[in-house]
Amino acid sequence: MTEEYQKRINAVFEFIDTNLDNELSLEIVAQIACYSPFHFHRIFKMITNETLNQYIIRKKIEKAASLLLHKKELTITSIVHQLGFTSNAVFTRTFKNYYHQSPSNFKKTHLHKFSKISQIDSKNSQQMESYETYICNLMNLKNFTTMHAKIEIKELATQPYAYVTHIGVEGLEKAFQKIIQWCTPKQILENNRSKIIRVFHDSFKITNPDKVRMSIGVTLTETIAVNGDINIGHLQKGKYIVGRYELLIEDLEKAWTGLFIWMNENGYKKADYNPFEVYHNDFNKHPEKKAILDLYIPVEYYFN
Known about the structure:
alpha+beta, Arc Repressor Mutant, subunit A, Multidrug-efflux Transporter 1 Regulator Bmrr, Chain A, 2 domains, 9-stranded antiparallel beta sheet, 10 helices, 21% strand, Helix-turn-helix domain-containing protein
């Protein structure tokens, strides 16, 4: 895979993310990548291990799952129309292929749950936690947040960042190394205002870990030229819940889950843009191997 291929596919990822409500034919998307439809189809599958159609359908269903979780005022019919499915029946059948239950049952089952939602194999069955176990886990996560997090609400201005794309949980360390190697000779991190970040374009709660797309990057304080598979993105302007943590990397999932619980219990609602992490140290150099970082959750509004 060449750097040029990855750069053009990054543009496609961004285009699809912002146009899931519109027509996304092979011809239209191939134009964004500046390839012929035939050539683009082959490159896209090589990079994502999915055909374009498979990728778009998965992203639509995952967006539907996110809307069911975070936009309880929306009806299933309105989601069907918004995402361009031909009928409720087609949407329900496709949704069941991913989550093995109907959209309405999914909404009832997972609306207040904090654990990951599994896209499980059809040969297996989902095991539901007992109520007692659920409450125990909930309390443990709330206690973890109380003990380890300093939480604030912040207004963030639009922030540019340089990044490399990474898909899945394998090989993450190499992605971090790559962005650090890129910015070291440019002395980007020496001004103390630029930070290493990880932006989540998918949610581990609704997307299989091997398909979660992330941007591993560094925030920028000035315009800078990029090349190869380094791209420029922008953190969205808006209001964020920010949790400051000092923890072991293996506790990151616990921290994220606890922060989302805090969001729900304090009346905030997730906005439709991407959460991210900001790193303040190299945890490998910490005496206890702990990362000092901020977790950012975008929020839409506050309600009583």
